[in-house]
Amino acid sequence: xxxxxxxNGQRRPDKxxxxxxxxxxELDEELNNRLTREIAVLFTDIRGSTTFFKIHGDIAGxxxxxxxxxxxxxxxxxxxxxxxxxxxDSIMASFNDPADAVNAAMEMQRKLSEYNSSLSQEESxxxxxxxxxxxxxxxxxxxxxxxxxVA
Length: 151
Fold this sequence. Notes:
The chain is an alpha+beta fold. 49% of the residues lie in helices and 30% in strands. The strands form 2 sheets. The protein has a 5-stranded antiparallel sheet. Strands 1-2 form a two-stranded antiparallel ribbon.
Protein backbone atom coordinates (compact mmCIF):
# COMPACT_ATOMS: atom_id res chain seq x y z
CA UNK A 1 0.00 0.00 0.00
CA UNK A 2 1.21 3.44 -0.78
CA UNK A 3 0.61 6.68 1.03
CA UNK A 4 1.04 10.37 0.39
CA UNK A 5 3.72 12.41 2.19
CA UNK A 6 2.25 15.38 4.09
CA UNK A 7 4.19 18.62 4.71
CA ASN A 8 4.71 17.72 8.41
CA GLY A 9 6.45 14.47 7.46
CA GLN A 10 3.51 12.23 8.33
CA ARG A 11 1.95 10.01 5.73
CA ARG A 12 -1.68 10.10 4.67
CA PRO A 13 -3.15 6.68 3.84
CA ASP A 14 -4.10 6.12 0.22
CA LYS A 15 -7.62 5.21 -0.94
CA UNK A 16 -7.08 1.43 -0.44
CA UNK A 17 -5.96 1.98 3.14
CA UNK A 18 -8.88 4.26 3.85
CA UNK A 19 -11.29 1.67 2.43
CA UNK A 20 -9.70 -1.04 4.58
CA UNK A 21 -9.93 1.09 7.73
CA UNK A 22 -13.60 1.82 6.96
CA UNK A 23 -14.31 -1.90 6.41
CA UNK A 24 -12.64 -2.85 9.71
CA UNK A 25 -14.81 -0.27 11.51
CA GLU A 26 -17.93 -1.68 9.82
CA LEU A 27 -17.01 -5.24 10.83
CA ASP A 28 -16.29 -4.10 14.39
CA GLU A 29 -19.74 -2.49 14.56
CA GLU A 30 -21.38 -5.61 13.12
CA LEU A 31 -19.66 -7.86 15.67
CA ASN A 32 -20.65 -5.47 18.43
CA ASN A 33 -24.29 -5.55 17.30
CA ARG A 34 -24.41 -9.34 16.97
CA LEU A 35 -22.45 -10.44 20.04
CA THR A 36 -22.97 -7.80 22.71
CA ARG A 37 -25.93 -6.74 24.80
CA GLU A 38 -26.70 -5.19 28.15
CA ILE A 39 -26.64 -7.84 30.85
CA ALA A 40 -26.30 -8.19 34.61
CA VAL A 41 -23.56 -10.55 35.79
CA LEU A 42 -23.58 -11.97 39.31
CA PHE A 43 -20.75 -13.86 40.97
CA THR A 44 -20.78 -15.70 44.26
CA ASP A 45 -17.52 -16.56 45.98
CA ILE A 46 -17.23 -18.70 49.09
CA ARG A 47 -15.27 -16.89 51.81
CA GLY A 48 -12.58 -18.98 53.47
CA SER A 49 -12.82 -21.97 51.15
CA THR A 50 -9.05 -22.41 50.97
CA THR A 51 -8.85 -22.63 54.76
CA PHE A 52 -11.88 -24.96 54.84
CA PHE A 53 -10.17 -27.33 52.38
CA LYS A 54 -6.95 -27.21 54.39
CA ILE A 55 -8.68 -27.98 57.70
CA HIS A 56 -11.36 -30.44 56.55
CA GLY A 57 -9.81 -32.03 53.47
CA ASP A 58 -10.68 -32.21 49.81
CA ILE A 59 -13.81 -34.36 50.08
CA ALA A 60 -15.41 -32.18 52.77
CA GLY A 61 -14.44 -29.07 50.81
CA UNK A 62 -15.94 -30.41 47.62
CA UNK A 63 -19.15 -31.34 49.44
CA UNK A 64 -19.35 -27.84 50.89
CA UNK A 65 -18.98 -26.36 47.40
CA UNK A 66 -21.72 -28.67 46.10
CA UNK A 67 -24.08 -27.57 48.90
CA UNK A 68 -23.36 -23.97 47.84
CA UNK A 69 -24.26 -24.76 44.21
CA UNK A 70 -27.32 -26.82 45.16
CA UNK A 71 -28.75 -24.14 47.46
CA UNK A 72 -28.06 -21.08 45.31
CA UNK A 73 -28.56 -22.24 41.72
CA UNK A 74 -32.35 -22.63 42.09
CA UNK A 75 -32.53 -19.09 43.50
CA UNK A 76 -30.85 -17.79 40.35
CA UNK A 77 -33.36 -19.61 38.14
CA UNK A 78 -36.30 -18.49 40.32
CA UNK A 79 -35.24 -14.87 39.70
CA UNK A 80 -35.15 -15.23 35.91
CA UNK A 81 -31.38 -15.77 35.84
CA UNK A 82 -29.15 -18.31 34.17
CA UNK A 83 -26.24 -20.15 35.75
CA UNK A 84 -23.50 -19.50 33.20
CA UNK A 85 -20.91 -21.68 34.92
CA UNK A 86 -19.35 -22.71 38.19
CA UNK A 87 -15.70 -21.90 38.75
CA UNK A 88 -13.98 -23.51 41.71
CA ASP A 89 -15.91 -22.06 44.67
CA SER A 90 -17.91 -19.56 42.61
CA ILE A 91 -21.07 -19.34 40.57
CA MET A 92 -21.29 -17.02 37.58
CA ALA A 93 -24.85 -16.12 36.60
CA SER A 94 -26.51 -13.71 34.20
CA PHE A 95 -29.76 -11.75 34.37
CA ASN A 96 -31.48 -9.56 31.80
CA ASP A 97 -32.75 -7.25 34.55
CA PRO A 98 -30.28 -6.02 37.18
CA ALA A 99 -33.10 -5.84 39.75
CA ASP A 100 -33.53 -9.60 39.40
CA ALA A 101 -29.81 -10.06 40.12
CA VAL A 102 -30.07 -7.92 43.25
CA ASN A 103 -33.19 -9.74 44.45
CA ALA A 104 -31.48 -13.10 43.85
CA ALA A 105 -28.44 -11.93 45.82
CA MET A 106 -30.61 -10.89 48.77
CA GLU A 107 -32.42 -14.23 48.75
CA MET A 108 -29.07 -16.07 48.60
CA GLN A 109 -27.95 -14.24 51.73
CA ARG A 110 -31.22 -15.09 53.50
CA LYS A 111 -30.97 -18.75 52.47
CA LEU A 112 -27.39 -19.04 53.71
CA SER A 113 -28.22 -17.24 56.93
CA GLU A 114 -30.96 -19.79 57.57
CA TYR A 115 -28.66 -22.69 56.61
CA ASN A 116 -25.82 -21.40 58.80
CA SER A 117 -28.01 -20.73 61.85
CA SER A 118 -27.56 -24.26 63.22
CA LEU A 119 -23.88 -24.65 62.23
CA SER A 120 -20.66 -23.62 63.88
CA GLN A 121 -18.76 -20.68 62.39
CA GLU A 122 -16.22 -23.16 61.01
CA GLU A 123 -18.87 -25.24 59.22
CA SER A 124 -20.96 -22.40 57.82
CA UNK A 125 -20.94 -21.28 54.21
CA UNK A 126 -20.33 -17.56 53.84
CA UNK A 127 -20.17 -15.88 50.47
CA UNK A 128 -19.32 -12.62 48.81
CA UNK A 129 -21.52 -11.50 45.93
CA UNK A 130 -20.52 -9.18 43.12
CA UNK A 131 -22.96 -7.77 40.58
CA UNK A 132 -22.35 -5.57 37.56
CA UNK A 133 -24.61 -4.40 34.76
CA UNK A 134 -23.31 -3.35 31.38
CA UNK A 135 -22.49 -4.40 27.87
CA UNK A 136 -21.14 -7.93 27.62
CA UNK A 137 -20.00 -10.18 24.82
CA UNK A 138 -22.30 -13.21 24.72
CA UNK A 139 -20.66 -16.14 22.97
CA UNK A 140 -21.21 -19.90 23.19
CA UNK A 141 -23.34 -19.60 26.36
CA UNK A 142 -20.57 -17.64 28.09
CA UNK A 143 -20.06 -13.94 28.83
CA UNK A 144 -16.91 -11.91 28.35
CA UNK A 145 -15.85 -8.34 28.80
CA UNK A 146 -15.62 -5.62 31.37
CA UNK A 147 -19.08 -6.43 32.73
CA UNK A 148 -17.65 -9.77 33.93
CA UNK A 149 -14.35 -8.38 35.20
CA VAL A 150 -16.02 -5.73 37.33
CA ALA A 151 -18.60 -8.14 38.77
